[in-house]
Amino acid sequence: MFVLDTYKRLPVTFVRGEGIYLYDDKGKRYVDLISGIGVNLLGYGDKGITEIIKRQSEKLLHISNLFENPWQERLAERLVRHFGDEGKVFFCNSGTEANEAGIKFLRKYWHKRGEKRYRIITFNQGFHGRTYGSLSATAQEKFHKGFEPLLDGFDYAEFNNFESVKKLLKKETGGIMLEIIQGEGGINEAEREFLFKIQELCNSEGLLLFIDEVQTGVGRTGKFFAYKHFDLKPDIVTLAKGLGGGVPIGATIVSKRVAEAVERGDHGSTFGGNPLACEVALYVVSRTEELMENVERTGEYFKRRLSELGRVKGRGLMLGLELGERCYEVLIKLLERGIVANCTGNGVLRFLPPYIISVDIVDFVIENMKKII
Q1: Residue 148 and residue 129: Cα distance in Å, rounded?
Q2: Which pLDDT tens digit goes with each residue over 80-102?
Q3: Residues 278-295: what's their mean pLDDT?
Q4: 315 domain residue, yes or no
Q5: Are 19 and 356 in contact (CB under 8 A)?
Q6: Which of 57, 183, 263, 314 could crosslink 319 through cysteines, CB 3.0-4.6 Å?
Q7: Dihedral of CA 197/202/203/209: which sign?
Q8: Is 367 among the domain residues?
């Protein structure tokens, strides 16, 4: 009644969660296969997260970035260990903020070199956020309507079409920004050969490769970063969603050469990387490293079972079943049977379950879906 009507909400009110299950206000139990849009990696009521929140809330919640923050340093070290290249990390609160920072850092890199290479190539059906920089980078007209004019400096190529990328190259082009798997766009996977050519182009033209891992990062595809499935060497990688396991935190990781171009005062965030968020995220990263085998193994099993029902896309525990116009109808029927998923671009039923999912849960879901479909 008092909340702005910006969301199409499903007809259910969840009041608590436990493990992979959610419970509504009537006590009905649901299997959660969307985990708050890829956020609750460890499910609900994880004792480690609960204890850290209790302990850290008694110590220090927030100090701002005017002071040294040892919690940030520990988390940054862990993330850079996965990224490599003597990387550096900027902490913020969300995926769109992480992408905004990445866009700024890319442009600052070229400014520092005295070159006006501010343009960024992004891709149709991609999604990078809803604030103005990331919205302008998002090549989907439906998100643009009513918010024009957008920011200048973004050129939209066709995903998995390398020739369309080459045609957009200009002397002002400074980088290429993409998702390894387009989440909101319909679980669209980048092809290996396409990514290989993108990396080659970046190397030959000196472009910065910017990979948005807001949804795919922190183990969602079976590796800590989705780009690790391929021989890629990005200059900028962004994280959010699952990084805090439900506590808001985002991160922009940059290579050494980009880090050297960023100076004090170039960017900032009041809440970004506060002690509570960093302490929880460090725990989530550690647990994710332990659960990676389950993500890969159960993800492969889930994908194989889903293929019994139709065309499946994605990898790890980021999967989509193509249903077309029937997607929302199937979604509602699943909800009635106590299963939570969601529909994304072009009628794809999206699954982003917590990493603690088991094959028994997968079998339960598939048998119910067979009865519906």
Answers
A1: 15
A2: 999 998 999 999 999 999 999 99
A3: 98
A4: no
A5: yes
A6: 314
A7: negative
A8: no
* Helix intervals (H) in the chain: 35-38, 47-59, 70-83, 95-112, 132-137, 141-144, 162-168, 192-205, 256-259, 275-306, 327-336, 359-372
Residue 228 sits in a domain whose CATH number is 3.40.640.10
Q: What's the pLDDT at 282? A: 98
Q: What is the pTM of this model?
A: 0.97
Instruction: Specify the amino acid at residue 168.
Output: L
The answer to the question of residue 321 being in a domain is no
Under the banding of pLDDT at 50, 70 and 90, the label for residue 1 is: confident
365 falls within a domain: no
Contacts of 147 (CB under 8 A, 6+ apart): 132, 135
**Total of domains in the chain:** 1
* pLDDT one-digit tens code per residue, 244-269: 999 999 999 999 999 999 999 999 99
Single-letter amino acid, residue 33: L
Cβ neighbours of residue 122 closer than 8 Å, sequence gap 6 or more:
128, 137, 138, 139, 154, 155, 156, 157, 176, 177, 178
